[in-house]
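Risk register update: the risk of archive-format incompatibility is retired. Evidence:
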Amino acid sequence: MATSLFKLISSFFILISIFISQAVAQSDGCQSQSKNSCNNKSAALPLKLIAIASILITSMIGVCLPLFSRSIPALGPDRNLFIIVKAFASGIILATGFMHVLPDSFDMLWSPCLKENPWHKFPFTGFVAMLSAIFTQMVDSIATSLYTKKNNTGIIPEIEVADMAAGNTGGHFHGHHHGPKIGIEGSQLLRYRVVAMVLELGIVVHSIVIGLSMGASNNTCTIKPLVAALCFHQMFEGMGLGGCILQAEYKFLKKALMVFFFSVTTPFGIAIGIALSKTYKENSPTSLISVGLLNASSAGLLIYMALVDLLSADFMGPKLQGSIKLQIKSYVAVLLGAGGMSVMAKWA
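Archived output:
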């Protein structure tokens, strides 16, 4: 499972690198906007280096917080506070898709730098986002089916497997365990694992694109507020992903791998943008098309994951269905998360 996750995420890095190389190779692109007092490459570089460090730290804090919540009884995955915090983070992920990634894609694919036909004749952003949501549903469904068949006798948390192998079962394991967990609990754990993997992939794509845009920009007036906005964004988006990783009950190695990829993708994108700042033309047709299509596909995935696998799964689950008061608190948390992220759209 860890190997397959590594291969999937690595393939996205390779794919994005190909798109970037094509954008750099474009030499006859649309002219950039006229220079102003904010465009200062020497002043922008220290800000980008600060951004790499601060975003890396806040990303690690955000995604790791839920993973250490088991040591705090009030933040356990079965507690109300955990449900409310997860709802807040889910609202942030939903707003990221609707208020940040999707509008950016519309702006890019409707840019006057692109030819009238076909880019201004057809809503490619909505079309690609729709296909992305359908494809995510397909991957979600097929992955669950295949994983279920592979583990048709049920599925056991990997932490428990390690404990059982070590004989650490509190003295009640006498060598006659009859196989892994079965039924609803095992099926739910399986869903958590599929959701965590798919959500991680979607976040990796849009994080690199965001970082690339910042790294390639020399506009200090834009970078300064963007650093704060991205720190907020990465921390709380990381909390949403961290909650999913926690519920998936992975072993330490897989948790560390997923934390690593989430934490480094935006700084990695910024580093690529810095390296290509001389040759990368953000207004070239190839750049606009490739990044715009990536944003559209990422938006469809994030919106689907937020609505279907995070919000709907939690709100229609037994925990929230059994308490109207907890539902109301969770909805308020969703609105606060989505509202806060929507305000951040002013700068990011």
